[in-house]
Amino acid sequence: MIKVPITIVLKVLTIVMLVEVCSADRTVKQTALSKYYIDFTEVAKNWDLFDEHGIPMRDYGSTFGVQYQPVGIAHSALGNWDLYLDTGEVQYKNEFLKMADWFCASLVRKDTFGVWEYRFDYPRYYLNAPWPSAMSQGEGISVLARAYQLTKNEKYLQCATLALASFSAPLERGGVTFIDHDGFVWYEEYPSVQAPPHVLNGFISALYGLYDFYKLTGSELALDLFNEGIETLKANLYRYDLRFWSRYDLIEPFREHVFLFRFVTDQRHPRYPHPIHRVALYMTTESGARSQVRLDIGVDGDKEDIHVNRARLYYSPSYQDWGDSYILDGRTVRNYENLGGRHAHAPFEFLMELEENNKYILEVVYKDIYSEPIYVEMYADGVKYIRVGQLETIGDGEWKATTVELPTDLLLFKTGASLRYHELHIRQLEVLGKIAEQPILLAYAEVFEAYQQAVVANLWWHDIVNSLKRGLRNGE
Predict the structure, then answer these.
(1) Which of 5, 266, 334, 379 is deepest in the core (most CB within 10 A)?
(2) Contacts (Cβ under 8 Å, ≥6 apart) of 188
């Protein structure tokens, strides 16, 4: 069992209560810009789609097609910068400066400031083309600041100065800054006027750019913008803490979601066929009212699109381990059986509203024919499947119904960051905490690291929760 350092959680809570006694005075010292804060060298070495001038492009497939993506270009540029510092090879220097030139050439003037634009709609965050991004602005500044330091060419500094001014412009004017009702300043990766999402990694990347501009020039404006962002993080980082994982953004979590489950065994595939008749997800409100989404396995339509019946199974024998439908004891069933499916599991999913303070129960109705461990796991988006329960399988030939209570905390994984972004949050907060000399940022980096150790260690969900509770009781 992994021991989770709950002292860090307690430390965070203490710091949050004490909070803002820290000064917002100068927090950084002017020094030369060196390697970037996040390692993008592999991005630079492995990018495989370019325009005719060698500028990276992103293929979004049928959704948006091939596009210039300012963030991707910045990552490639910064990766080449680091490779140049590591090796001294002129090819990396030339690639870096070519992309820095792209940032100058592609900067779009908006009255008193300049932005790099995305030229496709993004409905997820209610954005219509063209739209800027605080993440692009910050990372573009980081590229241009290094280009100016390297060449002393004033054009790079002029472009960076125009990009910096976008942080003084509100979303309504085409800038990247949002001020909430508490007066906190947010730099929005996705500048949705309708619902600013406060994406964490994009916000921190923007702060890196502000910090770089200050380091390069001593700009009091850049320092003020940086410190305003730090104050926002200090006061709001707790909102990204799900108490077992970090959140990608702060979009309202209690809404309709698709919840994906699966059956698995201790082996890659089950040794015996296990007839499954029904799976259902029940929701009970505080008043006792109950609703359900039910999937009758083996009936016509059990594999239709999720929006047809609000539940479905994934049936593809070459990929999954669901068998054909048939009748057993007058009931429609499919076997969870060894079909040699590439993914070696039997998945199913529900579309249901997630509401605060409600209870959620998963029920599985099946015939217990063979003694073989069958587990139920739920997918934590972008992270992994987490084991939540086990069917009683003693091989007595009886029809049985196994129920598993699903903690709301577990279901909230739908609003958690992917593993990739969770790991990025840890690294970003470690770096930013040192830059700004803010213990609360370092503490959250440790907390998120502890969550990762627990969740990725193939523990059952209740083992993760009990480990956290045990540590809290023992004051560990």
Answers:
(1) 334
(2) 133, 134, 171, 176, 177, 178, 196, 197, 198, 199, 202, 203
pLDDT tens, 258-293?
999 999 999 999 999 999 999 999 999 888 889 999
Residue with tokens 């770089």: 212
Is the Cβ–Cβ distance between 451 and 247 less than 8 Å? no
Looking at the fold, whether 95 and 238 belong to one and the same domain comes out as yes
340 within domain boundaries: yes
Q: How far apart are CA 237 and CA 246, in angstroms?
A: 10
C-alpha–C-alpha distance, residues 333 and 336, integer Å: 10
Tell me the mean pLDDT in the region 231-254. 94
- In terms of Cα–Cα distance, which of 356, 446, 437, 440 is closest to 17? 440
Question: Residue 439 burial (CB < 10 Å; 0-12/13-18/19+)?
Answer: middle
Co-location of 297 and 425 in the same domain: no
Burial of 475: CB neighbours in 10 Å, binned 0-12, 13-18, 19+:
exposed
pTM of the model: 0.83
Q: Examine residue 222 and state whether it is found in any structural domain, yes or no.
A: yes
Q: Which domain, by its residues, includes 64?
A: 34-248+419-437
